[in-house]
Amino acid sequence: MSLFQIPASFLTMLSNRFQPDFIEKFLKFGVVGFSGIFIDFGVTYLFKEKLRVHKYVANSLGFIMATISNYLLNRYWTFNNGQSAQFSQFGKFFGIAIIGLVLNNLLIYLFNDKLKIHFYVSKAFAIVIVSVWNFLGNYLYTFAG
Q1: Which of 25, 31, 63, 27 is nearest to 44 (CA)?
Q2: Does 40 fall in a domain?
Q3: How far apart are CA 133 and CA 97, in angstroms?
Q4: Cα separation, 94 vs 101, whole angstroms
Q5: If 0-12 CB within 10 Å is exposed, 13-18 middle and 19+ buried, where does residue 84 land?
Q6: Which of 7, 16, 111, 123 has the greatest CB tally within 10 Å of its CB?
Q7: Three-state SS string across 31-73, please?
Q8: pLDDT for position 76
Q9: pLDDT > 90: what percent of the chain?
Q10: Domain for residue 5, yes or no?
């Protein structure tokens, strides 16, 4: 097998996951994510600008608050998933989010600190990029089934 050859079992798994409801869930995930942007930016602004907390700590607090809100909205509305294993499911969701938070902070570092793009513009770029990761991770792992 070539290094760049994709195993057939992986392609089958993907095709089984991307059923007709994929677009509907993706759009709902986007609406939830958009509401999370207000929480994320609001908390970040409060801690960074008003309380003078370091920008990466403020960014992380905003991200975590938005993650909790997004989990609840995605669980009950986007994925309509009322599984009884809420703690386990939230653990999966939070694990995906933690990876997203690391990506988010790395992207802000790249855009803001290295490329000198305004902090909040950098944060917006990072949110768009990390949203793709979050959706796919949660669609394929957290709420799969």
Answers
A1: 63
A2: yes
A3: 9
A4: 10
A5: exposed
A6: 123
A7: HHHHHHHHHHHHHHHHHHHHCCCCHHHHHHHHHHHHHHHHHHH
A8: 86
A9: 49
A10: no
Total number of domains in the chain: 1
Sorted by sequence, the CB contacts under 8 Å of residue 136 that are 6+ apart come out as none
DSSP H or E stretch at residue 137? helix 119-137
What distance in Å separates the CA atoms of residue 87 and residue 85, rounded to the nearest whole number?
6
Residue 33 in tokens = 């994510």
Phi, psi of 6 (to 5 degrees): -95, 125
Beta strands in the chain (DSSP E): none
Residues 5-53: tens digit of each pLDDT: 556 665 565 565 556 678 888 889 889 989 999 999 999 999 999 999 9
Tokens of 119: 């902090």
Regarding predicted confidence, which is higher, 80 or 60? 60
Q: What is the mean pLDDT of residues 54-66?
A: 93
Domain extent, residue 80, equals: 22-142
pTM above 0.85, yes or no: no
